[in-house]
Design goal:
By secondary structure, this protein is an alpha/beta fold. About 20% of the residues lie in helices and about 25% in strands. The relative contact order is 0.11.
Length: about 550
Amino acid sequence: MLNMNKLITSTVLALSVSLSTYAEDVTLVVKRHGQDKFETIVVDESEVEQVKNSNLYLSVEEEVWLSRPELKIKPLDKVNQLKPKNILKNKSMSATSTNYTPNDPDFSFQYYFSEKSEQTGSSEILQAVRKSEQNKKLRIAVLDGGFHDHDDMEYSYGFNFFDEWGEIRTAEFRDFEDEVSDAKGCIGGHGLGVASIIGAKSNNEIGISGVIEADLIALRVLSCGIGPMSDLSDAIIHAAGGEVDDIPVIEKVDIINISISGPVGSCPSYVQEAIDFANEQGVMIFVAAGNNNEDISTYAPAICDGVYVSGATDKQGYKAEFSNHGAVSSMSPGVDIVGYSATYSEGEIITQLGWWEGTSQASPLTAAIAGLGLQHDPKLTTEEIFNYLKLTSDDIREDVLNADQDCSLEQCGSGLINASRFMDLVIAFDGETKFELNHALADDSNCDQELFISEFGNSLKLCEMYELVMPENFSELQGDITLVKALKTEELTEANVEEVIGVTDSTMLLDAIDLDTYQYATKICLNDTCEISKLIGLDTTKAVSPLSCQK
């Protein structure tokens, strides 16, 4: 077994292959007529065409294997050499405090948490953490390999789906904890690293800080860095609360991260069907673009429908030279990402801290940032989260130093994720934050009723005017805002409203407001064509005419 593992590692570490590469037997993924689920069968190579032409099957595809991208980890001693002497201690402070900074000793190396004024390649995650309230504790699944234990990590649940080379499907999801000697040469802790980026314990004076406090679900689909996509599809269905063979069904997760990639040409139908099932359950799926500096058009699962694809940027905000590109959703930091890893030393596995590099790290950062929005407003849909992430992204730097950093021709999606701006949009649309429509005069006003000019250009007394007040966090939004109205007898929908006036200032003085006949709202256009927009009702509790105007 050890020799086979070494052969596969050196041959296909960054490739996808069919199982027929290794043996005369070929594994096929088939769906029989009248059945809902795919199954795998093993046939002789000479029988493949016969099976494909058989009337027994609705679908027949050769099994495809994928790998995690090549491991790029800098040694631990380089981290130690740069360790700062002074660490801010905020153990008792709430994460939603405006001054909150985790007291984890290696947090200072997590540049992607900082403000852009300090680090141009940052996604400003700390600001987002401070803005996000945990109104729901999320369940986030990591589909990967190389899971190990660490004092700064806690898995809520795990399962091994990889069942090749004598391995079986079992609740033990950790890699080779009982067969360390067989694992030499395959240890890196990729799954551990990805999971730690998402949810390492924060503010506990240990190591690093994860982006979000969540229940982490570890589903092992790789061994020695590779695995069949049929195992991946089963793990997706399982994570989404579906039935897979005799494995006990679990409560569906909220988010799935898949830091696996390979050039397979197209998305296998059995993988797409699993993704579709997860999407139908409301599960968001985030995937890595790949590390080959190529177009993602042939890379799975990035080419599959219904997933959010992350490319990688470097510390300066350029496209990372290794990152795949093309029809990616957006970019996230993927160079010098601090996370936990694993090594083999003197007969045992040792977990430690190291620098990671790759789209494998960009994807979990994106997934966790999305989680900050979802935990704050659990009503948000997958489409809304995906749109908000894209709409609040920053432009990728254009002053490139070489062609491999080039993001022209929309090769880098919407740009570099900005977690802080993303949370501003989530909070703006959480249903709790509304524009106020107040009467221009307070109850105790003794105003002499001089004439004032309204936004419509009319000269009127204040008793005949109203004041539209914009919430503070809306001032940073990039999009057109319009006051609209609809008859009270009609439903307040975008199809029924008509424009009143564009909202251009934080406070506006208005006349011609008829609260007896109409209901009012603000319409926020989130893109240039207003194809993506949102209606937000007004708070009119202070719109009552005061006694001083009822004389």
